[in-house]
């Protein structure tokens, strides 16, 4: 069975940013269309404002999670390739 790579701590937040951002682009297009054709656009512009604020809040949340994750990683000892001696090449059998 194939193993999955571990998820980043912000992967779900980034998916939400993409989802809300997609609707933001849609509302931007509708708002511009309504403005150019003379139709009422206030409701569409307010909805666009809500999506922009939502993306900004999600981005702030993502930054806080990343900052918290970096602080906890700084406390852990390094694991991986840094543990191997530099003079022993990989696969040499020594």
Question: Which key features would you list for this structure?
Answer:
elongated, 94 residues, mainly alpha
Summarize the structure.
The chain has two helices and no strands.
Question: Please, could you describe this protein's structure?
Answer:
The chain has 94 residues and is mainly α. The chain is built from 2 helices and no strands. Helix 1 packs antiparallel against helix 2. The longest helix is centred in the middle third of the chain and has 34 residues. The mean pLDDT is 85.
Largest sheet: none
What is Rg?
23 Å
Distance between the termini: 31 Å
Structural class assignment: mainly alpha
Number of strands: 0
Count of discrete alpha- or pi-helical segments spanning 4 or more residues: 2
SSE series: HH
Average pLDDT across residues? Answer: 85
Task: Please indicate the percent range of residues in DSSP E strands (runs of 2 or more).
Answer: under 5%
Topology:
Blueprint: H1 11-37, H2 42-75
Helix pairs in contact: 1-2
């Amino acid at each position: 069975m194939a193993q999955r790579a571990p998820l980043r701590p912000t992967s779900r937040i980034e998916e939400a940013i993409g989802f809300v951002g997609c609707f933001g682009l849609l509302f931007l297009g509708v708002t511009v269309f309504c403005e150019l054709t003379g139709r009422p656009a206030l409701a569409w512009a307010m909805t666009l404002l809500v999506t922009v604020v939502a993306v900004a809040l999600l981005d702030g949340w993502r930054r806080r999670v990343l900052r918290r994750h970096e602080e906890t990683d700084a406390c852990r000892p390094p694991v991986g390739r840094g543990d191997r001696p530099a003079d022993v090449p990989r696969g040499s059998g020594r």
